[in-house]
Amino acid sequence: TLPSRVTLVEVGPRDGLQNRPEQIPLAARLRLLDDLAAAGLTVIETGSFVNPQWVPQMADSEAVFRQVRRAPGVRYTALTPNLKGFERAMAVAADEIAIMTAASESFSQKNTNCSIEQSLERLAPVAAAASETGVPLRGYISCALGCPYEGEVDPHAVHALTRALFDMGCYEVSIGDTIGTGTAGSMARLLDLILSEFPAHKLAVHCHDTYGQALANILVALQRGIATVDASVAGLGGCPYAAGAAGNVATEDVVYMLHGMGIETGINLPRLVDAARHVCAALDIPCASHVANALKA
Ligand code: HMG
Ligand code: MG
């Protein structure tokens, strides 16, 4: 059955901006965060604390966390791949952290410079520290529906990793279709397997829209009771370690679909479209969201 309310996890300020070729001015990152909070987003992945040699766009995430005006009721979250990242996130009082692993060995090596097994070993102390600090911990699994280097991915590997992340203490696991190759068919098969063990309210989907399948894949998740959806304003983004991967599904497009289905989000769509337009103007790029473009006239 469909959820009556869905939480959007806005990942644009992290997933969306991490892949831009240019260095994003701090003011533009702060403005985007303000606009998103004003539009009603309540969970905003604000930045990442990764090796700045690897992802220079996120190098000034400390400044972003320090200077953002924290809107009441909004969680400003951070991606932290290791203990060093965790400590940086705690130093600027991130409200929640996310850790990531991948369902494909090659992607794990390219993205985090270690095997899948080693990634779990690296994340265990982060999870322990999060638990000790009392900061909520979210988990990501990349390449859940396909890998840019290896192609097809075994759903059982994704299921096993989901279990590993819950065992580590994640309150929620986000199933990532990093390169957007999944379809309503492969998403249904994967979710049915995972949902045979874990409840829908502990899962989220994170769909990139490379093949235009994201909304269909999200619908499949909603039909299974999943009520948390990751999305990126203006469809910004892509992954630096997955050449050709498009951005996440645009938040505006997801909100339009949800409202059309009578599902509450708490988001003001016109204000969200304004946020999309502002950030695209600041970056001088065309807007990749259908809804923002449709409402242009
Ligand atoms: P490494 O190079 O193997 O780490 O990176 P290391 O421990 O050997 O350290 C090397 C150097 O980096 C050291 O500096 C560390 O101090 C420094 P040196 O001593 O040489 O001067 N360092 C750091 N500095 C600041 N903050 C840190 C940090 N860590 C190490 N946190 C590591 C390993 C995992 C850190 C690296 O591979 C990395 O940063 N990877 C992240 C790459 C990334 O951000 N990818 C994109 C995000 S994932 C994604 O987009 C997918 C997702 O959206 C879901 C989906 O779509 O599937 C989440
Ligand atoms: Mg992503």
Automatic annotation (TrEMBL):
Gene Ontology biological process terms in this record: ketone body biosynthetic process; L-leucine catabolic process
The record's annotation in SUPFAM superfamilies points to: Aldolase
Entry keyword Lyase: yes
- Pfam families assigned: HMGL-like (PF00682)
Enzyme Commission number(s) from the entry: 4.1.3.4
Q: Which UniProt keywords apply?
A: Lyase, Metal-binding
Kindly give the InterPro entries that the UniProt entry links to this protein.
Aldolase_TIM, HMG_CoA_lyase_AS, HMGL, PYR_CT
Q: Where's the Pyruvate carboxyltransferase domain?
A: 6-273
Q: Extract the NCBIfam families matched here.
A: PRK05692.1
Under which name does UniProt file this protein?
A: hydroxymethylglutaryl-CoA lyase
Name its species. Answer: Mangrovimicrobium sediminis
